Amino acid sequence: MREGWGIKTFDEIISSSLIGIVRNNKEQSVEFAYRYFKMNNIRNDNGINEGSFSFVNATDEEVKKYSLEQNDFLFNTRNSFELVGKTCLYKSKDKEVTLFNNNILRVRFKNYLIPQFVAYAFSTSTILERLEKMKSGTTSVVGIYYKSLKNLPLPIPPLQEQQQIVAILDQAFEAIDQAKANIEKNIINAKELFQSKLNDIFSQKGDGWEEKSLNTICEVKDGTHDSPKYIDKELGIPFVTQKNILDDGISFENTKFISLENHNDFYKRSNVAYNDILFSMIGANRGMACVVDDKRVFSIKNVGLIKSNENYRPKFLLYFFKSSIAQKFIAENSSGSAQGFVSLGKLRTFPIPFTHIENQKKIESIVESLNDSVNSTISNYKQKLNNLEDLKKSILQKAFAGELTSPERTK
Fold first, then answer.
1. pLDDT one-digit tens code per residue, 14-34
2. Confidence label for 234 from pLDDT (cuts 50, 70 and 90)
3. Which residues contact 409 (CB under 8 A, 6 or more apart)?
4. In the chain, at which end, N or C, are there fewer CB atoms within 10 A of the end residue's CB?
């Protein structure tokens, strides 16, 4: 540790701390008076999500006690294992009264500390590793409680050096965040280019094309809608749902497992085979499709099954499903309000721009080449994003090791 710096526990540096006000779901409504800051309002990057506030009513005494002020330090004490311990400084352009939830710890510091300095400290790998060891709870709810948090050691330089560190980090991170925003825009542009080319292919049809309903091209089924008893992985058959259908294929991570007896019953209804297409029929990712490129045995639930045959190339059909033309049909033909779904009847009558097999092969080759190029570009951009994140971590570690400042420069 640098000369002139000290070590203090979290408990030693705070002037006040408070757990927020309890309001259940029935006590929250957009018609109520006060914004209600909850754990989802702390972004994973330590910023604030102001677009999803709930609203509550409160007495004058509660408003006085639980209102947030600019630069209040907020710590998420209960959440999932991955997300518990999120932090942010409350900074809002909106002057509206905002109360905070009982899963949030509000902290105000003693006057020898700059809140932004502490907020940056809680982003360092050293502090994050210590917080990781404090997590305790069940599989669904994990907490980091004050009895553990109060003993967390923090490096504390003199006030002037804190100011210098904050200024250096603010400037560096602003430049890094702008570079990240530019890269993320480039990723969006690359995806939009791919979509534009797909739409060109499937909308500017030439000779030999015709529109067919999906069930005239191949057999269309769906998986079971039952919820069987789950068993241990070692004894069971994977049970694939819409959550396992990803843009780049089937994911067998986080699947549950069913008995061979249940699988055999379900297989009579939906006999999934290699090169078939799976189509998500329900939820936020409805319309997501993938080709079965894995030869393991599994059953499906709430998933459309498009059987392969010699009439079509699976990837030709897959690329059409990825086009915005197909996605528009899905949006316009979904039912349900809380959780939209595409019925089996709608899936069977899905209008497909269809062409002969040789043309399908050419289109498949063109799209695959474009897809590889776009994916390579996006992969390079994502690596640049990772490099910028690594740079942020490196700068943070150097700042809190005292390598970016000196006592002389603060005078």
1. 999 999 999 999 999 999 999
2. confident
3. 164
4. C
Q: Give this prediction's pTM.
A: 0.77
In this predicted structure, what is the pLDDT of residue 203? 87
* Angle of CA points 90, 92, 97, to nearest 5°: 90
**What's the rounded Cα separation, in Å, for the pair 48 and 37?**
10
Locate 292 and state its tokens.
Answer: 């079965």
Residue matched to tokens 């043309």: 359
pLDDT for the residue 355:
93
Closest CA to 299 of 275, 278, 321: 278
Residue (of 92, 102, 109, 81) closest to 47 by Cα position: 92
Beta bridge partners of 107: 17, 73
- Per-state percent for the chain, helix, strand, coil, to nearest 5: 40, 20, 35
Q: Is residue 153 classed as helix, strand or coil in its secondary structure?
A: strand
DSSP labels, 95-123: -S-EEEBTTEEEEEE-TTS-HHHHHHHTT
| Residue closest to 120 by CA, chosen among 146, 155, 93 | 155
Measured in degrees and rounded to the nearest 5, phi and psi for residue 297 equal -85, 135
Task: Determine contact, residues 214/353, Cβ cutoff 8 Å.
Answer: no
* Distance, CA of 92 to CA of 98 (rounded, Å): 10
Query: What counts of helices (H) and strands (E) characterise the chain?
Result: 12, 23
| Distance in Å from the first CA to the final CA of the chain | 20
Q: Which whole-number Å values give the CA distances from 143 to 74, 118, 140, 156, in the listed order? A: 15, 21, 10, 26
Tokens of 360: 């399908």
pLDDT for res 235: 87
- Model pLDDT for residues 57-102, shown as the tens digit of each residue: 999 999 999 999 999 999 999 999 999 999 999 998 888 999 999 9
Phi, psi dihedrals of residue 251, rounded to the nearest 5° = -110, 125
Confirm if 10 and 154 have CB atoms less than 8 A apart.
yes
Give pLDDT tens digits for 125-174.
999 999 999 999 877 899 999 999 999 999 999 999 999 999 999 999 99
Strand order in the sheet with 34-37: 54-56, 34-37, 98-100
**Length of the chain in residues, anyone?**
411
Q: How confident is the model at residue 338 (pLDDT cuts 50, 70, 90)?
A: low
